[in-house]
Amino acid sequence: MTIIETNDFAGERVVCWFSCGATSAVATLKALEKYRGKLPVEICYCDTGSEHPDNMRFLLDMQRIYGQPITILKNPKFKDCWDVWEKRRYIAGIAGAPCTSEMKIKPRIEFQRPIDIQVFGFGGEEIERKKRFEENHKEIYVECPLIDASLDKQECFVILTRLGVELPMMYRLGYRNANCVCCPKGMAGYWNKIRIDFPENFNRMAKLERKLNAAINKSYKGGERQRIFLDELDPLAGRYQDIDVSCGFDCELEENKDV
Protein backbone atom coordinates (compact mmCIF):
# COMPACT_ATOMS: atom_id res chain seq x y z
CA MET A 1 0.00 0.00 0.00
CA THR A 2 1.31 3.44 -0.88
CA ILE A 3 1.09 5.62 2.20
CA ILE A 4 2.13 9.22 2.69
CA GLU A 5 3.16 9.82 6.29
CA THR A 6 1.41 12.53 8.29
CA ASN A 7 4.55 14.63 8.69
CA ASP A 8 5.02 14.86 4.92
CA PHE A 9 2.62 17.80 4.86
CA ALA A 10 2.10 20.77 7.14
CA GLY A 11 -1.41 22.09 7.58
CA GLU A 12 -4.51 21.11 5.64
CA ARG A 13 -4.62 19.12 2.42
CA VAL A 14 -7.27 18.05 -0.05
CA VAL A 15 -7.72 14.36 -0.84
CA CYS A 16 -9.69 13.51 -4.00
CA TRP A 17 -10.98 9.95 -4.04
CA PHE A 18 -10.70 8.90 -7.68
CA SER A 19 -12.45 5.60 -8.47
CA CYS A 20 -12.02 5.33 -12.26
CA GLY A 21 -15.65 6.38 -12.58
CA ALA A 22 -16.82 9.39 -14.55
CA THR A 23 -18.19 11.30 -11.56
CA SER A 24 -15.09 10.97 -9.39
CA ALA A 25 -12.95 11.94 -12.39
CA VAL A 26 -14.86 15.20 -12.93
CA ALA A 27 -15.13 15.89 -9.18
CA THR A 28 -11.34 15.72 -9.05
CA LEU A 29 -11.10 18.19 -11.93
CA LYS A 30 -13.36 20.59 -10.04
CA ALA A 31 -11.35 20.22 -6.84
CA LEU A 32 -8.10 20.92 -8.67
CA GLU A 33 -9.62 24.07 -10.16
CA LYS A 34 -10.60 25.21 -6.67
CA TYR A 35 -7.60 24.22 -4.57
CA ARG A 36 -4.49 23.89 -6.75
CA GLY A 37 -1.94 26.45 -5.62
CA LYS A 38 -3.83 27.05 -2.38
CA LEU A 39 -3.60 23.71 -0.57
CA PRO A 40 -1.74 20.44 -1.21
CA VAL A 41 -3.97 18.19 -3.32
CA GLU A 42 -3.66 14.40 -3.32
CA ILE A 43 -5.53 12.26 -5.85
CA CYS A 44 -5.97 8.71 -4.55
CA TYR A 45 -7.23 5.51 -6.12
CA CYS A 46 -7.98 2.39 -4.06
CA ASP A 47 -6.98 -0.60 -6.14
CA THR A 48 -9.29 -3.60 -5.65
CA GLY A 49 -7.36 -5.78 -8.10
CA SER A 50 -10.65 -6.81 -9.70
CA GLU A 51 -11.65 -3.94 -11.97
CA HIS A 52 -11.65 -4.13 -15.75
CA PRO A 53 -8.09 -3.69 -17.13
CA ASP A 54 -9.27 -0.69 -19.13
CA ASN A 55 -9.77 1.22 -15.88
CA MET A 56 -5.99 1.60 -15.60
CA ARG A 57 -5.90 3.10 -19.10
CA PHE A 58 -8.56 5.58 -17.97
CA LEU A 59 -6.58 6.36 -14.81
CA LEU A 60 -3.45 7.14 -16.84
CA ASP A 61 -5.44 9.30 -19.26
CA MET A 62 -6.88 11.31 -16.37
CA GLN A 63 -3.50 11.53 -14.69
CA ARG A 64 -2.16 13.31 -17.79
CA ILE A 65 -5.10 15.71 -17.75
CA TYR A 66 -4.68 16.41 -14.04
CA GLY A 67 -0.99 17.09 -14.54
CA GLN A 68 -0.02 15.22 -11.39
CA PRO A 69 0.34 11.60 -10.31
CA ILE A 70 -2.49 9.58 -8.83
CA THR A 71 -1.48 7.74 -5.66
CA ILE A 72 -2.54 4.09 -5.77
CA LEU A 73 -3.51 2.58 -2.43
CA LYS A 74 -3.84 -1.17 -1.93
CA ASN A 75 -4.45 -3.39 1.05
CA PRO A 76 -1.34 -5.64 1.15
CA LYS A 77 -3.28 -8.46 2.81
CA PHE A 78 -5.33 -9.24 -0.29
CA LYS A 79 -4.54 -9.68 -3.98
CA ASP A 80 -8.06 -8.83 -5.18
CA CYS A 81 -11.74 -9.13 -4.27
CA TRP A 82 -11.74 -12.85 -4.92
CA ASP A 83 -8.99 -13.19 -2.34
CA VAL A 84 -11.10 -11.25 0.18
CA TRP A 85 -14.16 -13.43 -0.39
CA GLU A 86 -12.11 -16.63 -0.11
CA LYS A 87 -10.24 -15.62 3.04
CA ARG A 88 -13.17 -13.97 4.77
CA ARG A 89 -15.51 -16.76 3.60
CA TYR A 90 -18.16 -14.12 3.01
CA ILE A 91 -19.27 -12.55 -0.27
CA ALA A 92 -22.05 -10.10 0.57
CA GLY A 93 -25.11 -9.75 2.76
CA ILE A 94 -26.73 -7.55 5.39
CA ALA A 95 -23.26 -6.73 6.72
CA GLY A 96 -22.30 -5.34 3.33
CA ALA A 97 -19.53 -6.52 1.03
CA PRO A 98 -16.17 -7.29 2.67
CA CYS A 99 -14.37 -6.39 -0.56
CA THR A 100 -15.43 -2.78 -0.04
CA SER A 101 -14.31 -2.79 3.57
CA GLU A 102 -10.93 -4.37 2.89
CA MET A 103 -10.05 -2.87 -0.49
CA LYS A 104 -11.55 0.63 -0.27
CA ILE A 105 -12.52 1.66 3.25
CA LYS A 106 -9.46 0.43 5.14
CA PRO A 107 -6.95 2.00 2.72
CA ARG A 108 -8.87 5.27 2.93
CA ILE A 109 -8.93 5.26 6.72
CA GLU A 110 -5.21 4.47 6.88
CA PHE A 111 -4.41 7.29 4.47
CA GLN A 112 -6.73 10.05 5.69
CA ARG A 113 -5.93 12.63 8.35
CA PRO A 114 -8.36 14.61 10.53
CA ILE A 115 -7.41 17.89 8.83
CA ASP A 116 -8.16 16.62 5.30
CA ILE A 117 -10.82 18.00 3.01
CA GLN A 118 -12.05 14.80 1.35
CA VAL A 119 -13.55 15.08 -2.13
CA PHE A 120 -16.04 12.45 -3.31
CA GLY A 121 -17.75 11.99 -6.66
CA PHE A 122 -21.38 12.01 -5.57
CA GLY A 123 -23.36 13.31 -8.53
CA GLY A 124 -25.82 16.17 -8.49
CA GLU A 125 -28.65 13.63 -8.28
CA GLU A 126 -27.17 11.97 -5.16
CA ILE A 127 -27.86 14.54 -2.46
CA GLU A 128 -29.56 12.00 -0.19
CA ARG A 129 -26.71 9.54 -0.65
CA LYS A 130 -24.27 12.25 0.40
CA LYS A 131 -26.38 12.99 3.49
CA ARG A 132 -26.34 9.31 4.50
CA PHE A 133 -22.61 9.16 3.98
CA GLU A 134 -22.00 12.23 6.14
CA GLU A 135 -24.27 10.90 8.88
CA ASN A 136 -22.24 7.71 9.01
CA HIS A 137 -18.83 9.40 8.69
CA LYS A 138 -19.03 12.38 11.01
CA GLU A 139 -15.29 12.20 11.62
CA ILE A 140 -14.39 13.52 8.15
CA TYR A 141 -14.96 16.73 6.23
CA VAL A 142 -16.76 15.89 2.98
CA GLU A 143 -16.86 17.99 -0.17
CA CYS A 144 -18.85 17.08 -3.28
CA PRO A 145 -18.11 19.43 -6.19
CA LEU A 146 -20.66 17.83 -8.50
CA ILE A 147 -23.52 18.42 -6.09
CA ASP A 148 -22.34 22.00 -5.63
CA ALA A 149 -22.32 22.44 -9.43
CA SER A 150 -25.52 20.39 -9.99
CA LEU A 151 -23.70 18.04 -12.38
CA ASP A 152 -25.05 14.52 -12.87
CA LYS A 153 -23.35 11.48 -14.32
CA GLN A 154 -24.49 12.06 -17.89
CA GLU A 155 -23.08 15.57 -17.79
CA CYS A 156 -19.80 14.14 -16.53
CA PHE A 157 -19.74 11.81 -19.55
CA VAL A 158 -20.08 14.86 -21.79
CA ILE A 159 -17.29 16.74 -20.00
CA LEU A 160 -14.89 13.81 -20.31
CA THR A 161 -15.77 13.24 -23.96
CA ARG A 162 -15.10 16.90 -24.72
CA LEU A 163 -11.70 16.50 -23.07
CA GLY A 164 -10.99 13.69 -25.53
CA VAL A 165 -11.04 10.96 -22.89
CA GLU A 166 -12.55 7.60 -23.82
CA LEU A 167 -14.86 6.34 -21.10
CA PRO A 168 -13.91 3.13 -19.24
CA MET A 169 -14.86 -0.10 -21.00
CA MET A 170 -17.49 -1.06 -18.42
CA TYR A 171 -19.52 2.01 -19.38
CA ARG A 172 -19.08 1.21 -23.04
CA LEU A 173 -20.35 -2.32 -22.43
CA GLY A 174 -23.53 -0.87 -20.99
CA TYR A 175 -22.82 -1.05 -17.25
CA ARG A 176 -23.98 1.83 -15.13
CA ASN A 177 -20.64 2.17 -13.34
CA ALA A 178 -17.00 1.32 -13.93
CA ASN A 179 -16.99 -1.26 -11.16
CA CYS A 180 -15.13 -4.49 -10.60
CA VAL A 181 -15.97 -7.22 -13.09
CA CYS A 182 -18.29 -9.03 -10.68
CA CYS A 183 -19.96 -6.89 -8.05
CA PRO A 184 -21.60 -9.00 -5.32
CA LYS A 185 -24.20 -6.27 -4.83
CA GLY A 186 -25.62 -6.95 -8.29
CA MET A 187 -28.75 -9.03 -8.57
CA ALA A 188 -30.43 -11.11 -11.26
CA GLY A 189 -30.37 -8.74 -14.23
CA TYR A 190 -26.82 -7.64 -13.52
CA TRP A 191 -25.56 -11.20 -13.19
CA ASN A 192 -27.29 -12.30 -16.36
CA LYS A 193 -25.44 -9.51 -18.17
CA ILE A 194 -22.19 -10.66 -16.54
CA ARG A 195 -23.05 -14.20 -17.70
CA ILE A 196 -22.99 -12.91 -21.31
CA ASP A 197 -20.11 -10.42 -21.14
CA PHE A 198 -17.82 -12.21 -18.69
CA PRO A 199 -18.80 -15.90 -18.56
CA GLU A 200 -15.58 -16.95 -16.80
CA ASN A 201 -16.28 -14.54 -13.96
CA PHE A 202 -19.91 -15.67 -13.77
CA ASN A 203 -18.88 -19.31 -13.51
CA ARG A 204 -16.18 -18.53 -10.99
CA MET A 205 -18.65 -16.76 -8.73
CA ALA A 206 -21.17 -19.56 -9.12
CA LYS A 207 -18.55 -22.06 -7.94
CA LEU A 208 -17.51 -19.81 -5.05
CA GLU A 209 -21.14 -19.50 -3.92
CA ARG A 210 -21.42 -23.28 -3.72
CA LYS A 211 -18.06 -23.59 -1.98
CA LEU A 212 -19.11 -21.10 0.70
CA ASN A 213 -22.79 -22.14 0.63
CA ALA A 214 -23.63 -18.48 0.17
CA ALA A 215 -26.13 -17.42 -2.52
CA ILE A 216 -25.98 -13.69 -3.25
CA ASN A 217 -29.14 -13.47 -5.37
CA LYS A 218 -32.71 -13.61 -4.16
CA SER A 219 -36.10 -14.60 -5.48
CA TYR A 220 -39.61 -14.43 -4.05
CA LYS A 221 -41.93 -17.38 -3.60
CA GLY A 222 -45.30 -17.01 -1.93
CA GLY A 223 -44.29 -13.50 -0.88
CA GLU A 224 -41.23 -14.78 0.97
CA ARG A 225 -37.68 -13.92 -0.03
CA GLN A 226 -35.44 -16.85 -0.85
CA ARG A 227 -31.78 -16.97 -1.77
CA ILE A 228 -30.92 -18.41 -5.16
CA PHE A 229 -27.53 -19.63 -6.39
CA LEU A 230 -26.14 -18.34 -9.69
CA ASP A 231 -26.10 -21.83 -11.20
CA GLU A 232 -29.88 -21.92 -10.60
CA LEU A 233 -30.53 -18.43 -11.95
CA ASP A 234 -32.97 -18.22 -14.85
CA PRO A 235 -31.04 -16.59 -17.76
CA LEU A 236 -34.09 -14.41 -18.40
CA ALA A 237 -34.53 -13.30 -14.80
CA GLY A 238 -34.16 -9.72 -13.63
CA ARG A 239 -33.34 -6.64 -15.62
CA TYR A 240 -30.43 -4.31 -16.08
CA GLN A 241 -31.90 -0.92 -16.88
CA ASP A 242 -31.54 2.50 -15.29
CA ILE A 243 -30.26 1.12 -11.98
CA ASP A 244 -26.83 1.70 -10.45
CA VAL A 245 -24.60 -0.98 -9.00
CA SER A 246 -22.29 1.54 -7.42
CA CYS A 247 -19.25 0.66 -5.41
CA GLY A 248 -17.78 3.29 -3.19
CA PHE A 249 -16.93 4.05 0.39
CA ASP A 250 -20.58 3.88 1.40
CA CYS A 251 -21.15 0.55 -0.35
CA GLU A 252 -22.02 -1.21 2.89
CA LEU A 253 -24.89 1.23 3.46
CA GLU A 254 -26.63 0.51 0.19
CA GLU A 255 -29.42 -2.05 0.01
CA ASN A 256 -29.23 -4.87 -2.51
CA LYS A 257 -31.14 -3.95 -5.63
CA ASP A 258 -32.39 -6.01 -8.56
CA VAL A 259 -30.10 -4.85 -11.32
Broad structural category: alpha/beta
Helix count? 10
**Parts with pLDDT < 50 across at least 5 consecutive residues:** 1-11, 252-259
Helix proportion of residues, in percent?
25-40%
Fill in the CATH topology of the domain at 13-175: Rossmann fold
Through-space gap between termini: 33 Å
Q: What is the approximate shape?
A: globular
Q: Give the full name of the CATH homologous superfamily of the domain at 13-175.
A: HUPs
* Top-tier CATH class of the domain at 13-175: Alpha Beta
| Major sheet description | 5 strands, parallel
Describe the model.
This protein has 259 residues and is α/β, with parallel strands linked by helices. Helices cover 39% and strands 12% of the residues. The chain has a domain at 13-175: 3-Layer(aba) Sandwich (Rossmann fold), CATH 3.40.50.620. The chain has a five-stranded parallel sheet, sandwiched between helices. It has a two-stranded antiparallel ribbon with strand order 6-7. α3 (81-88) crosses α4. The longest helix has 14 residues, at 22-35. The protein is globular, with a radius of gyration of 18 Å.
Question: How do the strands and helices of this protein lay out in sequence?
Answer:
Blueprint: E1 13-17, H1 22-35, E2 41-46, H2 54-66, E3 71-73, H3 81-88, H4 98-111, E4 116-119, H5 127-136, E5 141-143, H6 145-149, H7 153-162, H8 169-172, H9 188-197, H10 199-212, E6 217-221, E7 224-228
Parallel strand pairs: 1-2, 1-4, 2-3, 4-5
Antiparallel strand pairs: 6-7
